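Researcher: Structure prediction, please.
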Amino acid sequence: MPCNLYPYRMKFEAKSFELKIPDFSEQLLKNHLTLYQGYVTNTNKLLEIINTLILENKNSTPEFAELSRRFAWEFNGMRLHELYFSNLGISNLKPNSKASKMLKDSFGSFENWEKHFKSLGSMRGIGWILLVYDKEKHNLFNIWVNEHDVGLLSNCEIILVMDVFEHAYMIDYGLKKVDYIEAFFKNINWAAVEKRLN
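Model: Predicted structure follows.
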């Protein structure tokens, strides 16, 4: 019998991000990256434990069920942070770019999209604000994802990610979430967004 079962033989490595964001302190970014590394660690731990349970024929146990459900939360926490960090860094949206045209087609104007995206971010509660691309209808949607594993739209590509969990802003902005959202918008890497649409 093999010692590992696909896909549980996989091991994820934390990605390296060189973040120097004018509106975010070094301490905030350092803490946020440490939190991200925890998701990577926990994703690997869950894969290892789930694999062991399968090999020991314990795949009908409550432990197996709960850890398997937990996996999506840790994995998506890892991936959403990677997308978030990589869409930070100042890069302007080009007026004739694919992203610009799609935002206008989907929302009527850039301003309409921005107002909706910011409004979602300003709502009470924790979570993620995502701009996603529906590959079937070729349309963009702004969505609120409360937890990492609840609310994601199936078969949609994540184009832009804004973290609105408190750890993303409270060190620098306290309870002024709106100020954080403005800082985030000043520091969107539109080149990364554009790349995700291709």
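Model: The first strand starts at residue 128 and ends at 134.
Researcher: Thanks, that helps.
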